Amino acid sequence: MSQNSILDRLWALDTNTVSDALDFLNLKGATFGLQPLWDCPKIIGRASTVKVGSKTESTPTTHLITPVIDAITSDDRILVVSGGTDGISCWGDIIANASKVKRIRGTIIDGMSRDIDGSREIGYPVFGRGVTMISGRNRLVQIESGKPVHMRGVTVHQDDYVIADRCGTVFVPAEYIGEVLALGEKIDRRQSLMVHAVRAGQPVSEVMHDKQFEAISDTDGANMLSASAKSPYQQNPKKASVEDQELVALFRESDTPAVSDALDRLGISGQAFNIMPLANYKKATVGPAFTVRYVPASDPPGSVGDFIDDVAMGDIVVIDNGGRTDCTVWGDIMTQYAGLRGIAGSVIDGVCRDVNRAIADDYPLFTAGRWMRTGKDRVQVGGTNESIGIGKVRVKPRDIVVADANGVVIVPRGRAREVAEIAQRIEKGEASIREMIAGGDTIAVAREKLGYHTLQRKG
């Protein structure tokens, strides 16, 4: 199999699928925490490894990584840099430009980058822990290259295969690339059939049953196609109650900052910590909470997604996965099915994957992060419609969830009308302040006249 053929086949997959293939083969390769540092395109290629570390001598040295860049002669390379230090850069725009000239495909850093706008401007993909402004000059040095490096718990060898996209970064041992590609392609075909099945209306509890995953080696998928062909899509039979519709309408024009201030005024803890939007949503998502609690998988493992057939139109699925970031509980099939069922969105104290599907479908997702590794055989549903914890906030079934580009707040159902009234009063007060300063008043005068400093104070 030629290198071009291998890379073409790897390009046709994504990190979610490759991660699943590695799982089936009991291979390590999926990393957590190495994310795109700008809106990078997907990259695939072969690893050129570099290890950096703290500088201990005062004598001048060649800038780290530059000898490796100069030595590259092929166009299939991805720089894989280990040993970075939090807060200190081991990548910047000058070496990004040099790499671009050498036709290097991108850089994966277990560390930090600075001058990230420079990499963005030339379209050079950089994945890593985060960004900083602090230079690595006289702080970090290159220790070695072309040797095995450790990237977030995964050992990467020179010439291993690399795939990185919006969900993160995966490394594939070169000696197993054939098996990983073959299995990944089967998984990809199977997942496509599953998507077709849920689009056709087949219950997701059947589509995502463990037996479907166990049959991953089946290449034709005839049974699933046959079932989906016989099962045209039916609308969600579970409708929102009159009271649900009334309570949701109270918050339809509100945003989370106003609701948060109202909760503060009433002494209610409802702001979900560290649960953030997948995209910069332009309007709030509001709905009653359908609560789900995940637990570590048993032996044999239990269900991971059957609950979704019980979720009513307009509900928001609120999942307590204990804040776990090592495996996901939501992917493209769940996104597709939830959208078809008229579910309003999902809030997860944990991570999601297949984010391109959710972004393309404009399906609202609010999570503690994104990663590609499946939760299958790692977690299972422990309970539904019971009290759970999300981002340090208790959520009861049918509480009202308000989520937007700022984050997520939970409103206790029994106090929803009270919270909504105060939130609307706060929003009106802030709108009046904006009108006054637009008319020439100082912000201090406007705030004083309208009592801004007491808007969210406990009454």
UniProtKB/TrEMBL annotation:
Gene3D superfamilies: Ribonuclease E inhibitor RraA/RraA-like. Keywords: Magnesium, Metal-binding. Its cofactor is Mg(2+). GO terms for molecular function: metal ion binding. Mg(2+) binds at D354. Substrate binds at G331, D332, I333, M334, R353. Pfam families: RraA-like. It comes from the Eukaryota. Coiled coil: none annotated. The keyword Metal-binding applies. PANTHER family: 4-HYDROXY-4-METHYL-2-OXOGLUTARATE ALDOLASE 3-RELATED (PTHR33254). This is Demethylmenaquinone methyltransferase. It comes from Trichoderma gamsii.
